[in-house]
From TrEMBL:
GO CC, alphabetical: cytoplasm
Pfam families linked: DAO
The organism of origin for this protein: Flavobacterium petrolei
InterPro entries, sorted: FAD-dep_OxRdtase (IPR006076), FAD/NAD-bd_sf (IPR036188)
Coiled-coil regions listed: none
Protein name listed in UniProt: FAD-binding oxidoreductase
Domain FAD dependent oxidoreductase: 16-369
Lineage: Bacteria, Pseudomonadati, Bacteroidota, Flavobacteriia, Flavobacteriales
Length: 370
């Protein structure tokens, strides 16, 4: 980089906190650091022109886990762990709403639904059977039943008679959310530089030397909020998971409102006005989808279109308007990693596909570590 004296002075000199990643976690960490240290110099480094992982690419679900996902989580985590995780997701959503306001993020409390395909009798039976137990363990947190059976009123095709409804779920506008976070960060004198790739860093004990290609600068502390790109940073504890998404052109008289889950959360869809956004399908080819490369594959896109045609919009014509993908951070555990890696290096990663819900809290917790 060929930088001037002015650029070096204003952006790269006397940096107190460098944050890598300008997504939900990174910006919440920056804002919390600003609250704690009003006079500090905070620099956010982002490798994309916009937040690169999933913060601006997700489906905008304000959710904390479908019934089948919670049941699956109980098979690999203790009951206490699962309740704690749901509590964090719920708390994170409240934090996000409080910081930005429901109008800003276009919060729509339509509720959420889980569908079960006709040929997925085992998952359907298990969910219906365990529904009362899940309600019981979540009642102390929500002070009411979370899940209830409802007859399908949307005209879906090839599904079981009942949907599972969750009144605590909602939609948000992901673009509005991230734009508002970026605006607030800039207004709080947080410096944000895009298209900056941290190629290496070295904790010297009294600070961190950070390399951006052939240029390096010093910061007192560095915080990584790189989620799906944190595999190397965490010695493999975080694995990338690509999520492929599509959205339709407007559909006349669309009568679907809400957030919807299918096949243990591997597929998800919602309305955006009179369009349908649908994503998922990484379970069709885990190996290929565990990647940090953006893009689409034929096998996943065909399946998404099949679900639109046969299940979601069985009696309606539709056209695909746009396709994209995002990169999530997952691992063997659903618990996020918020930890100090060395004297002056910290990370808040592995959001497990729940970044909208938990990202604000993880960013805040990351800043509290310093």
């Amino acid at each position: 980089m060929d930088l001037s004296y002015w650029e070096l002075k204003n952006w790269f000199t006397d940096v107190d906190y460098a944050i890598v990643g300008s997504g939900i976690v990174g910006l919440h960490a920056a804002l919390r650091l600003r609250e704690r240290f009003p006079e500090s110099k905070i620099l956010v480094l982002e490798k994309g022109i916009l937040p690169q992982g999933a913060s601006t690419k997700n489906a905008g679900f304000a959710c904390f886990g479908s019934l089948s996902e919670i049941i699956d989580d109980l098979k690999s985590h203790s009951e206490e762990e699962v309740i704690h995780l749901i509590q964090k997701r719920w708390k994170g959503l409240q934090l996000l709403r409080k910081r930005l306001g429901d109008d800003t993020i276009d919060f729509k409390p339509y509720g959420g639904y889980e569908l079960f395909l006709k040929d997925d009798e085992s998952c359907y039976s298990e969910c219906v059977g365990k529904l009362p137990f899940i309600n019981e363990i979540l009642r102390p947190l929500f002070k009411a039943d979370v899940f209830a059976k409802e007859v399908d009123r949307f005209g879906f095709g090839g599904i079981q008679e009942y949907l599972v409804f969750n009144p605590f779920e909602a939609q948000i506008d992901t673009g509005n959310m991230m734009q508002a976070l970026l605006k607030e960060s800039v207004s709080k004198n947080i410096l944000i530089l895009n298209q900056q790739i941290v190629t290496s860093y070295f904790d010297k004990g009294n600070g961190v030397e950070v390399a951006l290609g052939d240029f390096s600068f010093s910061t007192k502390k560095i915080l990584f909020a790189t989620n799906g790109f944190a595999n190397e940073l965490t010695n493999g504890a975080v694995k990338p998971a690509r999520a492929q998404v599509l959205i339709t052109e407007p559909i006349k008289n669309l009568d679907i409102k809400g957030t919807f889950h299918l096949d243990r959360g591997y597929y998800y869809f919602r309305n955006i006005g009179d369009r349908i956004l649908l994503g998922g399908g990484r379970n069709l080819d885990f190996e290929t989808e565990n990647t940090t490369e953006f893009g689409q594959t034929e096998i996943v896109q065909k399946k998404l279109e099949q679900l639109l045609k046969e299940v979601i919009l069985p009696n309606q014509d539709f056209q695909i308007a746009h396709r994209w993908s995002g990169i999530m951070g997952i691992g063997n555990s659903k618990n996020p990693i918020v930890s100090q890696l060395s004297d002056n290096v910290y990370c808040g990663v592995r959001l497990g596909g729940m970044g909208v819900a938990i990202g604000s809290l993880i960013g805040t917790e990351l800043a509290e570590l310093v």
